[in-house]
Structure formats: structure tokens, C-alpha cells
Write a structure and sequence with these properties.
- It contains 19 helices and no strands.
- It has 472 residues and is mostly helical.
- The protein has two domains: 6-175, no CATH class; 180-472, no CATH class.
- The longest helix has 34 residues, at 181-214.
- Residues 76-82 have low confidence and may be disordered.
């Protein structure tokens, strides 16, 4: 029951209606039941695995908190760190989560990846790390914690939430104003824009990208270069579209989820790109891997090793193929080279103009997306050889889009670029729309809905279509 499925089109309004009419004390159980039902729609095993992970994490958090309290009483003061028993518990439960995630992601027995496991596992590890370090209090209410893990808008593809954000809001559910008209309008706009990104742009780009990457030998270098450029916008619009839909639904329900994207293709460095792309994962890797490894505190060489290790883990998290590891390694190497370059710049070297840096960063990121998208390193080698030896147009019609669809695709990309440029300069479209009178807002909403319904990309498998990051 993905966000763009017909089943979800009925599911969310029912959940929202129940949330509106139920008293505050009943809203948590209602949302939790809805979230578990949403998870079970992907298969009963997905729900059982989520329940097991939730219970293990909740109990472990309580054990960690109890051990800290015991150590504090023993020392006559609040414990600032963890004792040996606490570290043992922490290591054991982190090991459990890592082994479980590794088993489901990398098994060769045909067992499907449980929906959302990569995201809620990292969320659980972050929560336990915060409890272990004393940055967060263990949640004693199982209902609160279960909803924190299962909250359906963010379950499948994140954002990877922090207890200080989402869990704190869950505790306040009975007091929430669930009929805030401004939040409902704002959330609705986010949902509509997310649907436009997914169905009008990302899924349309997917047609030529899938055609070329699945049979690259039948195409020339021009087609391969073109779809590689397009894939940068496909993965952006697909993942950002999911995030916008998730954040929109959460906003309607009275929650503020973490943002995941901030105009990533306007970055002027690879470090800046990762501050803008998949922000919840980037900050998670920084806080729970890079910094614990020593960050930049252990000298230059150690810093470079920590950077590379962090990005290799990011690559492994995304998938099982060696091309994902290569993708992570390329970004790690780029960060190291950038760090070296900044030191040279500090010694008086001339800096590049920002627009040129943005272009170079985008070209590098787009090249790495090619490594990310291929099915194997062997396919990558074959495609690169065609780019070098046969850079010509061979079968443009084989990319399976009509002239009208190419026009729609290019207009969609242009719209995304214009939106990001405007937002970068402080012009927010949602804010601008909300300030218009009711007639203008209604016209904009109607146009967006009509565009999604009439021009969206639908097929035989539409009702079971998935967002790209669901597979990760």
C-alpha cells in the first residue's frame, strides 16, 4: 500500500477522519493501529519484524536507563557515562540490530527485504545511542515508543527521526490542535507537490532510464549520457516526492518531521551536497558513526580514514552490490580531496567562482549516480566503454517516450530547477500560495490535481508501484 496506490487514497482520509473525531486520549492507539495496518499491508512478516525490533529496542532502552540510574546512585551523583554493564547491553543490542539488518539486506535465500527496516533500524540505533550517552531519556511508555518506530508517514523511507523531535511530539498528542486550518492547507500543498514530483516527473523519467540501463548495448553514448543526466532528477524527484508526501501527511496530523532535502543540486561542494541531500541519513552518519570514530579530533590521517569509513557504510546501507560500495567510496574520496583543497586555498590559492563550483559538483554527483544506478560493475564498464568509443545517437525511439512526453519531462525538470532557485533566494512557493485569496488557491490546487490525474505516469502495475528508496 504505497503512497501512490489506490488503497492508500482511501486509507489516509479514513485515518485522518478518525484522528479528528476521536478524543485526545484515543489518538495514540488510533495512529499506532493505523501504522501497524499500513506496515502489514506489505505482508504479515513485515509487521512481525517491526514489532520484534520495537520491543527489543524499548526494553534495551529501559535497561540502559536503569543501569545509568544505578551507577548514579552508587557514585552519589548523576552518572555522566555508562558503566561496564551498560556498555555490554548497548553493544549486544546494536549487534542484534546490525546482524538483523545485514541478514535481511544481504541474504541469498530469496527473503524479501522487510519494508522500512533500514530506516527504523537506524532510528532505533540512534535512540539507544542517545539514551546510552545521556542525551535522551528512555521512553517508559511502550505505546509512545511503538508509535515512534511505526509512524506510517515516515515508516517506508524515513526521514530517520530522532527521539528529541518525533517522540517528543508523540507525547504531546492529546494536547495537539488537530483542526489547524493553516497546517492542513500547508500539508496538503506538500502532498500535492510530492505527487507531482513522483508521478509527473520521476516516473516519466524512469521510462527512458530503465530502457537504456536494462539494455545499454542497444544504445549509443549520447543516449547513455542523456539518461544518466536525467537519472539525477529521477532519484531526486522520487525521493524528495516521497519525503514531501510524508511530511505533508504528518503536518496535517499535527507533526513536524525532519526535512530531508534542501536544494541539493545547488551545492558548491561535496560536503555541502551531503548537508542538503538525505539530511536525516547524513546527520545520522555524522552523529552516530563519524564522530564516535573520532571525527576530525584525532589528526588529519585519522580524519580521512573516518570520512572514508562513513561513506563506505553509506554505500553498504544502500545496497548489496559492489557498485554501491564504489559509489560510497567515490564520495568519501571526494570529501578527502575537498578537505585537502581547502587547505591549499587557505594558503593563498585562487578560489573558483561559485557557479562553476556548483556545476562541477553537479557533474561529479551525476557521474556517481551512474555508478549507483547500474546493475553491476560489469555493466558500468560496458556503459563507460560505449561513452568513450561510440558517442553517437543510435536508437532515440527505443527510449520509449513520445515527443509530447519529452516536452512534459523537460518542463517538469525546469519547474523543479526554478522552484529550487527561488527557494534558495528565500522565495517560498508554499508561503506565497498560502497568502493568496481563496479563489487563487483553489485554482492552483485544482490545476495540480488535474495535472497529476491527467498527465501522471500510470501503468499496469500502478497500484503496486514503489518509490526508489523503498528498496534500500
Amino acid at each position: 500500500m504505497g503512497f501512490t496506490s489506490l488503497a492508500f487514497l482511501a486509507f489516509f482520509p479514513i485515518v485522518w477522519l478518525g484522528y479528528l473525531i476521536l478524543p485526545g486520549s484515543a489518538r495514540k492507539p488510533w495512529l499506532l493501529a493505523a501504522s501497524w495496518l499500513f506496515c502489514a499491508s506489505f505482508g504479515p512478516s513485515a509487521l512481525l519484524i517491526l514489532l520484534g525490533s520495537t520491543l527489543v529496542t524499548w526494553l534495551s532502552g529501559l535497561l540502559l536507563a536503569a543501569d545509568r540510574e544505578r551507577a548514579g546512585r552508587k557514585d552519589g551523583e548523576k552518572a555522566e557515562g555508562a558503566g561496564g554493564r551498560s556498555r555490554l547491553i548497548f553493544a549486544a543490542v546494536i549487534g542484534f540490530h546490525v546482524i538483523a539488518l545485514g541478514f535481511f539486506k544481504y541474504n541469498r535465500m530469496g527473503i524479501l527485504l522487510p519494508v522500512g527496516i533500514s530506516f527504523y533500524t537506524f532510528q532505533a540505533i540512534g535512540y539507544l545511542a542517545d539514551v546510552q550517552s545521556g542525551k535522551a531519556q528512555a521512553e517508559r511508555n511502550l505505546l509512545n515508543f511503538a508509535l515512534f518506530q511505526a509512524f506510517f508517514p515516515k515508516l517506508v523511507q524515513g526521514p530517520i527521526e530522532r527521539s528529541g523531535n518525533l517522540l517528543a511530539q508523540i507525547r504531546e498528542i492529546p494536547k495537539k490542535d488537530v483542526r489547524d486550518a493553516e497546517r492542513i492547507r500547508s500539508g496538503g500543498m506538500l502532498i500535492l507537490w510530492g505527487l507531482c514530483e513522483k508521478l509527473l516527473i520521476a516516473d516519466r523519467i524512469a521510462v527512458p532510464v530503465n530502457a537504456v540501463y536494462s539494455q545499454f548495448g542497444a544504445f549509443g553514448g549520447v543516449e547513455i549520457a542523456l539518461v544518466t543526466l536525467l537519472y539525477a532528477f529521477q532519484i531526486y524527484c522520487d525521493f524528495a516526492g516521497y519525503t514531501d508526501i510524508a511530511r505533508g501527511m504528518a503536518e496535517i496530523l499535527g507533526f513536524d518531521l525532519l526535512t530531508n532535502f534542501r536544494r541539493p543540486y545547488l551545492a558548491d561542494s561535496i560536503q555541502d551536497f551531503w548537508h542538503r541531500w538525505h539530511q536525516s541519513l547524513s546527520s545520522w552518519l555524522r552523529d552516530y558513526l563519524y564522530i564516535p570514530l573520532g571525527g576530525s579530533r584525532k589528526g588529519t590521517f585519522r580524519r580521512y580514514c573516518n570520512l572514508m569509513a562513513t561513506f563506505l557504510v553509506s554505500g553498504i546501507w544502500h545496497g548489496t552490490g559492489f557498485h554501491f560500495l564504489a559509489w560510497g567510496g567515490m564520495h568519501g574520496a571526494a570529501q578527502i580531496l575537498e578537505t585537502m583543497g581547502r587547505r591549499l586555498a587557505e594558503n593563498g590559492k585562487r578560489k573558483l567562482p561559485r557557479p562553476l563550483k556548483q556545476l562541477l559538483v553537479f557533474l561529479f554527483v551525476d557521474l556517481t549516480w551512474m555508478v549507483f544506478r547500474v546493475n553491476s560493475l560489469g555493466d558500468l564498464k560496458g556503459m563507460l566503454l560505449i561513452l568513450v568509443r561510440d558517442f553517437r545517437l543510435r536508437d532515440f525511439a527505443g527510449m520509449q517516450l513520445t515527443g509530447f512526453e519529452w516536452i512534459l519531462l523537460l518542463l517538469g525538470i525546469l519547474l523543479v530547477i526554478c522552484k529550487d532557485l527561488a527557494n534558495e533566494r528565500g522565495f517560498g512557493f508554499r508561503g506565497w500560495i498560502s497568502r493568496q485569496n481563496a479563489a487563487v488557491r483553489c485554482l492552483i490546487y485544482t490545476a495540480m490535481i488535474a495535472a497529476v490525474v491527467i498527465l501522471g505516469v500510470y501503468g499496469a502495475a500502478y497500484d503496486t508501484s514503489q518509490f526508489l528508496y523503498t528498496q534500500f
